[in-house]
Specification:
Strand content: under 5%
Order of helices and strands: HHHHH
Number of domains: 1
Shape: elongated
Largest sheet: none
Length: about 150
């Protein structure tokens, strides 16, 4: 979608601090996505795709601090692209992406996980925030993982 909105054409005279900050966000987003996919395969014994779901609830790694690191990583990547290219349209797209993902998580993903993993997911949901990562040692209980 970012390519459709921009054709990867950068605005003129994008200031280097914006480009640098954008590059950091894109790299961090990519790293978080790779980490999260790895957790799904190794810990969950599955994938993030509904057609091949995990056998186990994934609560380790970055999932100890926030329940939705993949969605946050994609959002950060979109914002990073907006900064690199100097294209405010991508910021609007990031906001629309965030709203759509939030609605999907609340309306489908959380109820599905609650049905599938029951009390284990309920405890995880109480221990780990959905969207704003908790700090290590914040006093909230650590989720149990295998």
């Amino acid at each position: 979608m970012p390519w459709l909105l921009t054709g990867w054409d950068a605005a003129r005279d994008v200031a280097w601090p914006f480009v640098a900050a954008g590059a950091v966000l894109v790299a961090a987003g990519a790293g978080v996505l790779l980490h999260a996919f790895g957790r799904f395969v190794v810990e969950g014994l599955g994938t993030p795709a509904p057609v091949a779901p995990t056998e186990h609830l994934v609560v380790g790694g970055l999932y100890r601090y926030v329940r939705n690191p993949m969605y946050l990583a994609v959002g950060a990547t979109i914002v990073g692209q907006a900064l690199i290219l100097g294209r405010p349209a991508l910021l609007l797209y990031a906001a629309l992406f965030g709203a759509a993902v939030f609605a999907f998580v609340r309306g489908y993903e959380e109820p599905t996980l609650a049905r599938r993993f029951g009390a284990e997911y309920d405890a995880y949901r109480r221990a780990v925030p959905g969207w704003w990562p908790r700090r290590p040692g914040s006093g909230r209980p650590e989720p149990k993982h295998r």
